[in-house]
Design a protein that fits this description.
The protein has about 190 residues and is mainly alpha-helical. The protein has one domain: Hypothetical protein af1432. The chain has 11 helices and no strands. Helix 3 packs across helix 7. The longest helix has 25 residues.
């Protein structure tokens, strides 16, 4: 997997009105998602992971409210971004909502569940970056502390786990991806 973030995509974020702080966040999420994808060792679409992560918060050019995922996906479609990328943008809110959750949050009623490993990696990276940037763990040069303490942090700080349903989704993604990374590392050491 040899995908690298393109400066033209960063410029597209800027041109649509995404703030410098939000662009920094998006770049960090893309870097973290690509790192996780490489460590997972599975057959992963690196461009989808990188661009999905980079554009996941495009809607923050218009709002920082919960509908930024839906708005970002609409903006992405208007920009001609591939459907797989706009799907990530729309579905990243709380790690993929059920129809009932969407209705409760005032979003269009549909299933926002994450179906692909690429989608899950982007959402996992987004959560990890929030934990790292917010200084919840003293990572120094070792960002892996956010992964090692992921469950503890999500249970201790409700802003990361949100509610029981969202918390369980995030923990399932964490466990699935950690297993992939452990298996990949074990296989590379043989």
């Amino acid at each position: 997997m040899n995908y690298n973030i393109h400066a033209s995509d960063i410029e597209l974020l800027r041109a649509t009105g995404v703030s410098d702080d939000d662009i920094k966040h998006c770049v960090k999420v893309a870097e973290k998602a690509l790192e996780i994808a490489r460590r997972a060792g599975a057959n992963i679409d690196g461009e989808l992971v990188g661009r999905g992560a980079l554009f996941h918060d495009l809607g923050k050019a218009k709002t920082h409210e919960i509908e930024h995922g839906r708005i970002g996906a609409e903006m992405g479609r208007q920009l001609g971004l591939p459907k797989k990328i706009t799907d990530i943008m729309e579905k990243h809110i709380r790690g993929g909502l059920t129809e009932a959750e969407a209705e409760g949050l005032g979003l269009p009623v549909k299933n926002y569940s994450l179906n692909t490993l690429e989608e899950k990696i982007v959402i996992y990276a987004d959560r990890l970056v929030d934990i790292i940037i917010d200084g919840i763990v003293d990572v120094g040069d070792d960002e892996s502390q956010a992964e090692k303490r992921f469950e503890e942090i999500l249970r201790k700080y409700p802003q990361y786990g949100k509610n029981e349903q969202t918390l369980n989704r995030y923990l399932n993604y964490h466990n699935e991806i950690q297993i992939l990374m452990a298996n990949a590392e074990r296989n590379s050491n043989r």
